[in-house]
Amino acid sequence: MPVCAIAHPSLALVKYWGKAEGGINVPAVPSLALTLEGLSTQTRVEEDERDRVFLDGVETQDPKILTFLDRFRQVTGSNCHFRVETRNDFPTAAGLASSSSGFAALAAALWLLVHGSEAEPRQLSRLARLGSGSACRSVYGGWTAWEAGAEEAVPLFSREYWPEVRVLALLVEEGPKPLGSRDAMELCRRTSPYFPAWVADGPGLWQRARHALERQDWEELGHCTRLSYLRMFATMLGADPPVLYWKPNSLRLLVLAEQLRAQGLAVFETMDAGPQVKLLCLEPDLPAVLQFLRSEVSDLRWMEARPGSGVRAWYCD
Ligand code: PMV
Questions:
Q1: Per the CB 3.0–4.6 Å rule, which of 198, 208, 270, 316 could disulfide with 229?
Q2: Predicted local distance difference test score (pLDDT) of residue 94
Q3: Ligand 1 site-directed mutation target among 8, 10, 16, most atoms within 8 Å of CB
Q4: Tens digits of per-residue pLDDT, 238-253?
């Protein structure tokens, strides 16, 4: 019987950027993230004679997904092949962490299909990581941590811990990004003179952000969030050739976030491997934030998200 799964993207406040040597998608730095409800990936899998993958309704030879199916067979000893249909209700491969929810959903669905029972979350986290690093965090709901050198992420706090947190994913450009995060990370590791400094700085910033999260200190957590993404982009600007994901409208939104803070609103931004900007704020400030953005940007397109649940898989038609 086919299996369906749903997962939500993992938005890093403290970024995973760079892999440790050896291992598959084992991080060089620790990350801290929130799983987002409001954006989701839905995946359906069933056995087939050969592997076939459909992404948003279109058949694809996506090497990341096909390689993951091979790794899944290696790890689980299965010799099955699969038909995979996966859909995102948000732009794919555009810097909105679609690979985190995508591989979390795929790992959970395949596991249930092949084993007939749900995997332990930690086991699923390890498995999902083989598809995309950040997917090991999407397995869990709420707030997650993934330590440097670790093969799995761990849950820190559930989605109920801080229900007022809101994320506005502001869409700048929806096309797929020119360089995937995997290649960009590797380029930074090999060529950016700032990469060693990024790795050395990572654990301290991660601890600082964790303490802020434990105290529910929004200002401090937001400040750490900004330091992390800007330092991550510093490694990219220092790469050879340089990596630039930002578009003019990305920068415009960063300036608007600065203006919101100047108005006394506790709004903080982050970005990933793409031009989109995500604004974080607390629920009481959301109407004022949106009102200001809409008055400044005539064609503003956004998706609203909040702390979400972990991956779920079930038998379906
Ligand atoms: O999981 P990947 O290989 O798509 O890498 C994710 C990298 C960032 O989104 C930029 C940061 C993160 O921690 O999610």
A1: 270
A2: 60
A3: 16
A4: 999 999 999 999 999 9
279, two tokens = 């604004």
Amino acid identity of residue 126, one-letter, is R
Contact predicate 297/172, CB 8 Å: no
Mutate to test the pocket of ligand 1, among 11, 15, 224 (most ligand atoms within 8 A of CB): 15
Percentage with pLDDT > 70 across the chain: 99
d(CA 29, CA 32): 10
Cα separation, 170 vs 257, whole angstroms: 12
The model's confidence at residue 317, banded by pLDDT at 50, 70 and 90, is confident
Tokens of 240: 């050879």
3-class secondary-structure state, position 93: coil
Query: Residue 155 has which token pair?
Result: 């849950």
Spatial separation of the C-alpha atoms in residues 205 and 28, rounded to whole Å:
14
Decide: pTM greater than 0.90. yes
| Integer Cα distance of 113 and 5 in angstroms | 11
Closest C-alpha to 54, from 100, 102, 17, 104: 102
Pairing, β 31-37 against β 10-14? antiparallel
CA 217–ligand 1 middle distance (angstroms): 24
| The ligand 1 atom nearest the CA atom of 11 | 14
